[in-house]
């Protein structure tokens, strides 16, 4: 009780002291909550002030971005309105390190905020990160499955058209980016229908199987085998048959030895992981 009364006193006191700093009444109210002392929250929100970066610490916006999911969790989703403006300011910060920090934690924030707030406030930011520098995009890519599984099915399907864009990087030698894409696609197989897998994920998987870097190819063999497993269990058998026929045409009959080798490795993975009954495999 004494703690509550002390906090109540601090809230009232801080409200009086910060009234003058917010000119419009609505803006002041939008930042008021009763979970932590208001003065403490105001201090945190002021970290995005450009003058602070110049006079206090150039890294202050990055620290602010790093702490934001924790602050959001503490305040609860009912007080997200206090943080929304600050989050959007950080998401458009000139420093890529600040945007990268947010990109790596956006999936955690989505869990805290729930599907409605995520769809309204986080999806636009997420879409912006998808078009950002590779250093920022990797944060989104590493947790792509974690974020997309929180969205409604219709919203999730919209991203099928954009997955192809992850094959293009600022630096073509950035093979870890493509390896991470293959890893994420394996997880994404559970989120999409057999038709979506065949239409959208299959071409990406085949492209990754022909990658110049062996580490990317090895993960891609696993991706194709898991794809076959998923399609075989689907109600429409034509998808898996068409996929296997394409494997034969594209790799088994390839005029390059590396393509034929890829076919052997994919067969090995399918066999080892029991993705198909042996008669179907034969």
UniProtKB/TrEMBL annotation:
Alphabetical keyword list: Repeat
Region Disordered: start-end pairs: 11-32
Record Gene3D superfamilies: Leucine-rich Repeat Variant
GO molecular function: protein phosphatase regulator activity
Any one GO cellular component localisation term in the record: cytoplasm
Lineage of origin: Eukaryota, Metazoa, Chordata, Craniata, Vertebrata
InterPro entries per record: ARM-like (IPR011989), ARM-type_fold (IPR016024), PP2A_Regulatory_Subunit_A (IPR051023)
Protein name, as recorded: PP4R1 phosphatase
Gene name in the database record: Ppp4r1_3
